[in-house]
Design a protein that fits this description.
Layout lengths: L17 E2 L5 H10 L4 E4 L4 E4 H11 L5 H4 L6 E3 L4 H11 L3 E6 L2 E7 H23 L5 E5 L5 E4 L13 E3 L6
């Protein structure tokens, strides 16, 4: 089970995917889609291009826009030795959804809010399952993806969303 005190290196996505500052938006889009990732680091962590940056850049300037014009800079980073809580605090402070993990001066990974939620949700899911199991009936429940809203009706809790691999929650059970 994950905890906020565990090293951020245990939940980061690695290796990072990087592009040059000259990489056009069309190529960045292809990388994000083909590799099913949410961001690419520009050069040696000079900037980061997220899906949101990419869409805004394409709408405003077109598919040939270089990554250097799409990126958010400077990149917010934490050390690979930092704990998950430090990453959460930095993401909250800068109001971002992804943070680059560095080992010295080298970018080695990325942690997203989804990574954090999945790492920390394990403990909460265990408690919920324990209580839900004591009142469970044989009927089907509806589960909803916490990220994309995809819904599934089934007798047992699906692990993650088939559409985006995010955690699912039971929306059939009343909440107080």
């Amino acid at each position: 089970m994950g905890s906020p005190e565990q090293p951020v290196s245990e939940i980061m996505t690695e290796p990072i995917r990087s592009v040059t500052p000259e990489t056009p938006a069309s190529e960045v889009a292809t990388i994000l889609l083909e590799e099913s990732i949410g961001s690419v680091v520009v050069a040696d962590a000079d900037g980061i291009v997220t899906k949101t940056n990419l869409l805004a850049g394409i709408v405003n300037s077109g598919l040939k826009t270089p990554a250097s014009e799409l990126m958010t800079d400077p990149v917010v980073t934490v050390s690979r030795d930092a704990d998950v809580q430090t990453a959460i605090d930095r993401m909250d402070e800068y109001e971002i959804k992804r943070i680059v993990i560095k080992d010295g001066t080298e970018a080695v990974g990325v942690v997203s809010t989804t990574d954090v939620r999945q790492a920390l949700a394990t403990e909460l899911d265990s408690v919920i399952d324990m209580f839900a199991g004591s009142i469970k009936t044989d009927s089907e429940d509806t589960y909803e993806c916490m990220s994309c809203g995809e819904r599934v009706t089934t007798e047992s809790k699906p692990g993650t969303c088939n559409a985006c691999d995010s955690p699912m929650r039971n929306i059939s059970m009343p909440r107080n």
